[in-house]
Amino acid sequence: MTFKKKFFPLALTTPMLLLLLFSCQEKKPKPTNVEAYADVQIAGAMKDVMWKGKLGATLVFDSLIGKPGLYGLGPESYLTGELLLKDGVLFTSRVGADSSIEMTKNTSTSAPFFVYTEVNEWESSTLPNSIKNGKQLEEYLNERSKDLKRPFAFRLEGKIVEAAIHIQNLPKGSTVSSPKEAHQGQVNYSLENESVEIVGFFSTEHQGVFTHHDSFLHMHLISQDESKMGHIDSLEIDEMSLFLPKK
Alpha-carbon distance 28 to 51, whole Å? Predict the structure, then answer.
């Protein structure tokens, strides 16, 4: 008669069971997102300004002005102008009495929503000649940043063929409950064949927060001589360099 050996599992104590479970787990691959540069910070939300009329300050700039490496953008509280934080310098553009652009630097002000981050090192490259407008730029950044940490800030420097920008100029005492009402008094400006710098933010997950519902980009433009600055509505690019946060 042939006897088959029977094997009985050993009784496992709780610590042994936990050790076995952990040892059997597959090692998860490291995320490809770059964690080297600072997170993007967000104060307030565009949709709350446009639809809920939250025009007052959610961010005051006293602690941000003068800090190198800080970049950000948004409107001024009560939609009385546009704001651009560029390497720690805060530019404010407002509409003058004759509809000219009035620029100030590092004045005490606030924003109803604002997006900003700290970038001290940038990687530069030449923007491909095929990228000529904002939509093409959005698609290019989306493809190029698949393995990057998102959202992120970027910069462009160089020449534009033309650009349309606006400055918010909401009449004092106005109330807002729709985007149409929010843009009352807005003044539009055109630039042609100018050397400019553009500061922008890219995100696929913040539509209505710091980008419009139909875009992954929010960009402000400032002329090289710092006499003009505003929110970009349309853009035709000549030759520009692209700067992304260094990994």
Answer: 42
* CB atoms near residue 116 (< 10 Å): 24
Contact criterion met (CB below 8 Å) for 204 and 149: no
DSSP letter, residue 176: -
Residue (of 92, 117, 95, 93) closest to 107 by Cα position: 92
Size of the chain in residues: 247
What is the pLDDT at residue 35? 56
Peptide bond into 151 cis (omega under 30): yes
Q: Which two tokens stand for residue 12?
A: 């496992």
**d(Cα 170, Cα 183) in Å, to the nearest integer?**
7
Q: In this structure, which amino acid lies at residue 28?
A: K
Q: Are 210 and 203 spatial neighbours (Cβ–Cβ below 8 Å)? A: yes
Of the listed ranges 107-111, 185-189, 205-209, the least confidently predicted one is 205-209
Per-residue pLDDT reduced to its tens digit, 32-43: 444 568 899 999
DSSP state, residue 98: T
What whole-number distance in Å separates Cα of residue 200 and Cα of residue 231?
10
Beta strand 229-245 with 152-167 is: antiparallel
- Helix (H) / strand (E) containing 135: helix 134-144
8 DSSP 8-state letter: -
- Do the beta carbons of residue 196 and residue 60 sit within 8 Å? no
Tokens of 31: 């995320």
Whole-angstrom distance, CA of residue 130 vs CA of residue 137: 9
DSSP state of 240: E
Of the candidates 166, 192, 193, which has an alpha carbon nearest to the alpha carbon of residue 179? 166
Distance CA 9, CA 20 (A): 14
